[in-house]
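Subject: sequence -> structure tokens, single chain

Hey, anyone have a minute? Need the predicted structure for the following. Not urgent.
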Amino acid sequence: MNMFQAWLDRLAGGAVVPVFLTLLCAVALVVIIERWIVHRAARTYVGEFLSRLRKTLLINKSLRDSIETCDCCGGFLPAIMKAGLLKYGQPREEVEASFRMAAIYHVTRLRKRLLLLKSITSAAPLIGIVGTLSGFIDVFARFGREDPMDTAAASQMIAIALVDTVVGISIAAVTLLARNYFIGNIQGLTTDSEIGWNMLLETFGEMERAGVTTDSAGG
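Reply:
Had a minute. Here:
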């Protein structure tokens, strides 16, 4: 009998460890897909976006157009840049504070449920090991009851029990890779935001030195 088919038969029969592992797998997949959608929406073509933003400020001299550009592009960086644009004309400290608060808010949104993925990464292998050890205990218990022991049946039981560990480690590996991807994406977006902050502050400085005036954000 195929070992994984036997494991699926245990799952269909309501065995505790296979059921727990299946639930963990389902939760991990749902979270990974949902987070991937959120993180994908947060990405922006940084160079193109910043060029458009500088053009609306320095050439079009329109703060309103700059804010509309942020709204149209959407994503992590435009949302943070919009927070700074709304503070145009305020002291530099207030502009930087608005950047930081916006960044904290949006990073928190991106990190949502990553702790759950970390917990699944830790728990899945342990649950799999518990299932495997339980299988070993059943095999050794049979050794004590049956004489002689059917070695072929014992080997099959051990193999089926080991599948619990294989499944648990597999779930943990996929979840770990996904979580690391999301964390790396957050770090990349944070770096983009730092580039954007510096660019916008420099642009504000250029506008002030050149005496450029813009329309208001509210029209």
